[in-house]
Every structure is written in structure tokens, then in C-alpha cells.
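[User] Could I get a sequence and C-alpha cells?

[Assistant]
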Amino acid sequence: MGASDTETLESNRQRRSQLLAARDRANELPCHEPIELTGRPNVYYELRDYSQPNKLDGSKQARSDVPYLFKSFETGQARPPRPGTKNAQLPRAATIHEYLDWTVTAQGSQALDELDFSGFRTIVLVPRFRPHWPAPGLFDKEHCKKPRRLGALRNPWPVLLCDGKPVCAATIRVSLGYLEVPFFATLESKRKKGYGRALVEAIEEVARSLNVPRLLLCSTDDAIVKTTWRHLGFVYTSQQDLEDFGVQHGDLVHMDNTVQMHKDVPLAREWRTLVVRHQHLCQRIYFPAQPYKAAHAETAVRYKTEPTPAQTNGLLEH
């Protein structure tokens, strides 16, 4: 091995160490806990870690929880050969099925010349159950949330309860100055209803909690799909952009027939809260303290002034 090869190997080793240190920050995030998404009363989100000791079990659980995340990318694509067969022993390129399994289970790699999927988490958007006719005394007391940087500032009221399986999911990984999002999908029957936008807001909240200023998204190279992402504030990422962001070859999970897009994480919105009571029903809702003026929004969102507490039988909080 020549001096040049030795320098390259040492450079790659240092880069891997830097990436692993950044990705370890995912351990700061609470997993498998419901987190209230401010301003979205009908859903909440969860971060899930499928990197179980047995990766096969983690993949099976993920495929059961969010099958559409896999179906959206695997449909029409060649499956990997079955283990133990002759074709499985032949050299070949990895399939999208394997990329998905390795990503959701955060498959790590010790070899510097192999792709490393460590640090990935799956973030899901879950329908929230809110009883319309609660039992007497059910909402007399607030359920205090655990101290964390994620979620609404105040306690969820009523408590966060699941009302079905996740309707939207994505894989995310924190890295050096950006949050990577290689896979993103919405349940087919729930598309065009705002769930994708809500999950993007949840991902932005995660990024803000980790002081990460940018999202890097891997999008299918399809005009309709790219237009959807542009409506959510993402723009095309050129090779020069990646260099400016400090992204090196092998840092990102990248597939064929895809393009990179990015979005600067917006500042957190300022919210006010209102507690609404009616007989045994009690609910805390959020409304914006001022019109929304996002960097990528063409017009500010307008909203009507909330009725007074006397009109809503509620209590305005400060």
C-alpha cells in the first residue's frame, strides 16, 4: 500500500468517525413515545427504533407497522435472491428491498468501503383518538408529559391515544449539519389530505431540537413527486450545493433514479393555547400567535380571531 492509499484510508476512517459521532445524537431522541405536534390536533408522531438485536425481526415489525413505506418503493422492482440459493452467492448490486431493510434497522458496517446505515430512525404520523363523550372525571386532571425538547410546550389534554396504525412514515438520520430523509411515504388512501405536510413539520421539529439547520431529502426523479416537494419548501440540490453543505461521497443513502432536494429548517412558530371545556369534555388547542410568514410561503396564512373564553366556555392561556 502506497503513501497515497494510506492517506486516503486514514481520511476515510476519520470521516466515518465524524459521521458516527454525529449519528449517535439520535440516542438523545425519545423512541416509541407519543409526541404532540403543535397545531395538529388530530394526529401525533412517534420516533421508532427498529434496530433490534435480530435485524430480521426489526424489519418484519417495520413492514407490519408501515407496509406502505416499503410498497411505495418496492413495487415493480426485482427482489433479492432467496438466501441459500445459487444466485445469492453471485456478485450483484443491492436491491431497493435491501436498502429499505438496512435503513429501517439502522444496519451498521465496520468496513470503510461498505455503506453504513447506522443512526437511522423511523418517524411515523399516527391518528389521534379524542373521545367525544368522555366518562365523568376522565379529563379532570392533566397528564404531565416527560421533560423533553420535542412536542408541544404544555401537557397534551386529553392524553395522546392511538386511533389506528400510522398513516405516514419516513426514515431520518442526523448527520454533520443536516438531517437526512431517504425514504418518505403516505398511506395511499390518506394522500392529499395534509398528512405529508404534517410529518414534514414533525421532522423539522426534530431537526430544531438537535440544532440541525437543513433537511436533505432523496426524491424520486418524477415531475409530479418533485412538484409536491417544492410545494413543501424543498428545492433541487446540485452537486455544488452538496459540496457547499460539506457532504462527501458515501455520506448519504442514494438510489438510482432519484434526485437530492433540500430545505432550510424554518424557525419554530409562536403559538397560543386555549383550553375548551364543555361538561366532561376538556381539550387544549393551539392557534398561531401571529400570521405565518415562512421563507417559502407565497402568502401569509390568515386566520380569524378566536372567540372570547366566554363564547367558547374555555380558558385562554398565556
